[in-house]
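User: Last request for today: this protein with FE2/S2 (inorganic) cluster, please.
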Amino acid sequence: MLRKEQNDLLTQAGPGTPMGQLFRSYWIPALLTEELPENECPPVRVKLLSERLLAFRDTQGRYGLIDEFCAHRGVSLWFGRNEDSGLRCSYHGWKYDVTGQCIDVPSEPVESGFCRKVKLKSYPLVERGGVLWTYMGAPDKRPPLPEWEFAMVPAAQSYMSKRWQECNWLQALEGGIDSSHVSWLHRSDLESDPLFKGAKGNQYNLKDAQPHFEVVESPGGLYIGARRNAENGNYYWRITQWVMPSFTMIPPRGDHPVHGHFWIPIDDENCWTWSFDYRPNRPLREQELAVMRDGQGIHAKVIPGTYFPIANKENDYLMDRAAQKAGKTYSGVEGFAMQDASLQESMGPVIDRTKENLVSTDNGIIMARHRLMRAAKALADKGVTPPGVETAHQRVRSASVVLPPDQPFKDAAREELTVRPGVAHASV
Ligand code: FES
Ligand SMILES: [Fe+2]
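Assistant: Here's the final one, the structure of the complex with FE2/S2 (inorganic) cluster:
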């Protein structure tokens, strides 16, 4: 349970808010590279952290993320012309480069130098691992580029998708670090989804619906350990990584690709759910890629030409009561992604956390909230760089392992919880 002011602090990420400042300390995913596929392609509207921006790729292939609106009289530059190394407003022809600098005001004599005094807000936009990343904080505090393993491996080993989610970023993140719901909500899918089925760990998951949680602070966030009974008195551990502010990596299953998410605020009532799948030691197989593109595993089927799910709030997520009754799906909604999103969106755009009744399996959520609040306050009051900005904090892995009962998971799986280039994840 949180007090109202704590809930507000955690859920509001617009300009000038403490969580907004926190998010502006990191490189965050802004677009898929595929959204700007070639030089002079159409610009793309991007709303992030409650700021309305426009992304474009100019004649030389340079990426820019600038204020969506023209400095002249506020027209949306989405209607503009992407030509000759800049974006020209369709209203009166003012033109901007990828840094937001105005480079032409046709009505004014060139000698006046007027256009040099006009500059739109802009943020860097950099490609890495199929994603265009942006950093929306103070230029002098700009950290090194992100080094998440999925973005560092060769392109053939990694896949990324994104989908619009109609709720605040925090309730989506809280679903991502809540390992206990897997034995309920997703139980029917563990053995049917092509990106989950067949792993030995699934049996431990399904047999023991009362996992014991041990949550331990990591340099960048938390290790969230869920312990279930295995054979001969040993324990099956699933160790999720959460790195601030909103990166998660789900423990792997068998030889399947390893997946995880970012949740990035669009505004306070919507977020982008970014979903990655990768293998550090081999290219993704053609059939794995095919089912990912088809919206299976943690990905979602989206309306063609958009990143908006086909199953959504408007159509009750295509609820199938017969499938629910038959146990084909546990909730009646199909697929991991929309099972999660349907329930998280059902809480309303921003859940009132003053009314919750938390239990011991919510420990990861409780600790993540406190770590976020602490970091946001330390940044606002003393300018302390938050955890997760350092690239060393990003070189982490999730793991699933069977351990003897007397070994703390954090020590016993220390190596497995960090990146070992080219070596497969520890997985059961
Ligand atoms: S509003 Fe853009 S040029 Fe006038
Ligand atoms: Fe889930």
